[in-house]
């Protein structure tokens, strides 16, 4: 049992506490705190897990709006609390080591938590947030996103880049590297329309094609091989037939500024893409379509966080630790059901292994771990553009270049363009709201769940995991 303190700070003559832990039939008297005329206190011993509670103040049932609360399907409002298993503080909390150099930063917040014993971990994993309460919280977030449009995502100032379809592929990837872009729209001037997107996945496919025996493309050909020619080449690689058709066969997935945030998020999820261009298309005056913004999940998540930041109790799900919520990819030993298998690589693994996993296994990132499973770094799809620096991709062998060497190249490129690399991490006891706040940063696409003290990788929480769960 865990000693838990409850307080009521709004005065009264006779104040009692009641909840699921008393069967709602027993009322625990609350005592006025010495020196105060409004604050009442009660201390109870509770089992680890979720508990609902309420206050009986002068014969009237009340809830505390400053504490987490929710409304059930019958319209009844209750406060709730999650009682954690007592934690054992590890004597050593060491930072994540870098296989590259000692200046790689790691989110410090993850190490302000205590490490739990393995026995407590599995008991905590049994305490799941009720499905009914999950649905209430999902409903409120869905209503929010349905009530506002993509206009909310447009910045007051800024620029959006696009590449001409006639631009050579090699030059295009240099621009993506120099501008720090993982995806960029393609403009077809002859048709006066945006006709597609160039992504980091395109670069991966080109690298694999360059290094295949009997490659259709040589490094020299990339000097003149246009984006449009590559897109047609990509169709042939994917087994699609030749013949007259619209450019790139697949229409550009886009959204208008008046579409709801929910529709924009669902379009990203359903089409398995990372961004949706927000395009204003004039109907009658013959003007060119205007590219207003590239909408992405972090921008929508930031909007959710900002809306509920000062009223987290209205969405009780946000206060729950992530291990109590069915989302993310977890290691088998964590005992959490996952749609995907957690994939990791050692520093000695060849680059080809990482690229194969990124494309065939349809994952966006792979933790790089040592022999003990402790986090060293992360390799993601967007990191591939670092190989455009100095034409490094032309001088490496996918089967012989190790991940350690690739990460070194990526680190050097990142220092030049974006500053120090960071491994963004969290703990399984972090709340969903804390996770969402971190992921609302556009530079953070996923969080690696680590064990405090050992830094062993326990799981991954991605932006897509969050939205699939909230809108599922």
Care to describe what's here?
The chain has eleven helices and 22 strands. Helix 7 packs across helix 10. Strands 2, 3, 6, 7, 8 and 9 form a six-stranded antiparallel sheet that branches. Strands 16-22-21-20 form a four-stranded mixed sheet. It has a three-stranded antiparallel sheet with strand order 1-5-4, with no helix packed on it. Helix content is 26%, strand content 22%. The model is unreliable at 88-127, 241-248 and 415-420 (pLDDT under 50). The chain has three domains: 2-83, Immunoglobulins (Immunoglobulin-like, Sandwich), CATH 2.60.40.10; 105-129 and 320-470, CBS-domain (Roll), CATH 3.10.580; 150-296, CBS-domain (Roll), CATH 3.10.580. The two termini are 35 Å apart. It has 472 residues and is α+β, with helices and mostly antiparallel strands. It is globular. The chain has helices at residues 118-125, 131-147, 169-179, 200-211, 227-237, 261-270, 297-308, 351-360, 403-417, 432-439, 463-470, and strands spanning 2-8, 15-19, 28-29, 31-32, 40-46, 49-57, 60-62, 69-71, 77-83, 105-106, 163-164, 183-188, 193-199, 275-280, 290-296, 329-330, 365-369, 375-380, 422-423, 425-426, 446-450, 457-462.
What is the CATH superfamily of the largest domain?
Answer: CBS-domain
What proportion of the residues form beta strands (DSSP E)?
Answer: 15-25%
* Total beta strands: 22
Major sheet attributes: 6 strands, antiparallel
Q: Detail the poorly predicted runs.
A: 88-127, 241-248, 415-420
Number of domains as seen in the coordinates = 3
**Alpha-carbon distance between the two ends:** 35 Å
User: SS-based structural class?
Assistant: alpha+beta
The CATH topology of the largest domain is: CBS-domain
User: Which CATH first-tier class of the largest domain would you pick?
Assistant: Alpha Beta
Mean pLDDT: 79
Number of helices: 11
| CATH architecture tag of the largest domain | Roll
């Amino acid at each position: 049992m865990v000693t838990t303190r409850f307080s009521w700070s709004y005065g009264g003559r006779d104040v009692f506490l009641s909840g699921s832990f008393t069967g709602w039939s027993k009322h625990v008297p609350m005592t006025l705190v010495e020196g105060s005329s409004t604050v009442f206190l009660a201390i109870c011993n509770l089992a680890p897990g979720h508990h609902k509670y309420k206050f009986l103040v002068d014969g009237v049932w009340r809830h505390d709006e400053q504490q987490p609360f929710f409304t059930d399907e019958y319209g009844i409002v209750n406060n709730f609390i999650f009682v954690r298993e007592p934690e054992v503080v590890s004597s050593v909390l060491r930072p994540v080591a870098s296989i590259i150099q000692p200046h790689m930063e790691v989110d410090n917040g993850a190490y302000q938590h205590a490490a739990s014993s393995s026995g407590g971990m599995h008991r905590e994993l049994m305490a799941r947030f009720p499905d009914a309460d999950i649905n209430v919280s999902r409903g409120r977030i869905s209503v929010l996103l349905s009530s506002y449009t993509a206009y909310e995502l447009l910045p007051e100032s800024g620029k959006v880049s696009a590449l001409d379809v006639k631009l050579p592929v090699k030059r295009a990837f240099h621009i993506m590297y120099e501008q720090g872009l993982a995806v960029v729209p393609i403009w077809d001037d002859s048709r006066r329309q945006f006709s597609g997107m160039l992504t980091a996945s395109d670069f991966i496919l080109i690298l694999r094609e360059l290094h295949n025996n009997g490659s259709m493309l040589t490094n020299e050909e990339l000097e003149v091989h246009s984006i449009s020619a590559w897109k047609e080449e990509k169709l042939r690689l994917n087994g699609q037939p030749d013949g007259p058709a619209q450019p790139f066969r697949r229409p550009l997935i886009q959204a208008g500024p008046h579409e709801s945030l929910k529709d924009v998020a669902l379009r990203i999820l359903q089409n398995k893409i990372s961004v949706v261009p927000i395009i204003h298309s004039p109907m009658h005056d013959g003007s060119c379509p205007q590219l207003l913004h590239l909408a992405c999940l972090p921008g929508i998540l930031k909007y959710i966080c900002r809306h509920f930041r000062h009223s987290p109790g209205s969405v009780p799900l946000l206060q729950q630790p992530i291990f109590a919520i069915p989302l993310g990819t977890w290691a088998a030993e964590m005992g959490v059901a996952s749609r995907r298998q957690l994939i990791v690589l050692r520093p000695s693994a060849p680059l080809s292994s990482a690229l194969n996993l990124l494309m065939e296994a349809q994952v966006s990132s792979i933790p790089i771990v040592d022999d003990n499973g402790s986090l060293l770094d992360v390799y993601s799809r967007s990191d591939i553009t670092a190989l455009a620096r100095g034409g490094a991709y032309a001088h490496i062998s996918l089967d012989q270049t190790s991940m350690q060497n690739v990460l070194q190249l990526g680190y050097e490129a990142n220092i030049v363009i974006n500053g120090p690399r960071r491994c963004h991490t969290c703990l399984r006891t972090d709340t969903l709201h804390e996770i969402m706040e971190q992921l609302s940063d556009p530079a953070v696409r996923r969080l690696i769940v680590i064990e405090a003290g050992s830094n062993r990788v326990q799981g991954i929480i991605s932006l897509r995991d969050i939205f699939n769960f909230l809108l599922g």
